[in-house]
Design goal:
Blueprint: H1 3-17, H2 32-47, H3 62-72
Helix pairs in contact: 1-2, 2-3
Length: 84
């Protein structure tokens, strides 16, 4: 991960540790998917929390989300839910 992605991941972990809700929002292509999958992996590996988690994303990116979770954190089992 790049430095700014690690900073974002650490920010997400800090939010979790302090019981604060947050949204990761920046320009496309900066690694929000990787940061989010990394947070879910952290929760699973270090906190023993395996889910259920809900990720809200544009319909056009659902396939990529599914692939990235399967690739980087295969212990989690993603499920796609969408409506038209």
């Amino acid at each position: 991960m790049r430095d700014y992605q690690l900073a974002g991941l650490n920010w997400l972990i800090c939010l979790y540790e302090n019981g604060i809700k947050g949204i990761l929002a920046d320009e496309m292509g900066l690694g929000k998917t990787l940061q989010t999958v990394s947070l879910l992996a952290y929760l699973h590996e270090f906190k023993g929390i395996s889910g259920l988690h809900m990720v809200v994303a544009p319909k056009s990116t659902l396939g990529n989300w599914m692939n990235e979770i399967r690739k980087f954190c295969p212990v989690l089992r993603p499920m796609k839910f969408h409506w038209n």
